[in-house]
Design a protein that fits this description.
Strands 2-1-3-4-5 form a five-stranded antiparallel beta sheet, covered by helices on one side. It starts with a strand and ends in a 24-residue tail after the last strand. The protein is 8% helix and 37% strand. The protein is mainly beta and 107 residues long. It has one domain. The protein is globular and about 40 Å long.
């Protein structure tokens, strides 16, 4: 039986172009991943990551994400706030940086 995890990946997006990304870790429940993002656990923002995506991952190499939630850093509150519908990336479709459906990859 495979275990589902929820990856938390910070992303820097400017003018709808992906600049940097880093997977900060994973959780076994969606609620735990959401709490980590909302509380900016571990200082994920690091003064450069404009967005966070939470993705549900199964046990496979490059598994397709079933749940995807987007968050954006809000300067006024200094927190990540949820926005965008699941499965809608906040980047341009003509992005010249390689962009797949997943930002997974822990490290």
């Amino acid at each position: 039986m495979s275990q589902t995890i929820f990856t938390v990946t910070a992303i820097d997006i400017h003018d709808k172009l992906l600049s940097h990304c880093r997977c900060f870790g994973f959780f076994f429940t969606l609620d735990a991943a959401r709490n980590a993002v909302r509380n900016d656990e571990g200082g994920m923002q690091e003064c450069k990551y404009t967005h966070i995506v939470i993705e549900e991952q199964g046990e496979h190499i490059r598994s397709a994400a079933d749940v995807r939630e987007w968050y954006k850093w809000t300067i006024d509150t200094e927190t990540y706030e949820g926005f965008w519908e699941p499965h809608k990336a906040p980047i341009s479709e003509d992005n010249n940086i390689a962009f797949t459906t997943n930002f997974n990859g822990i490290g």
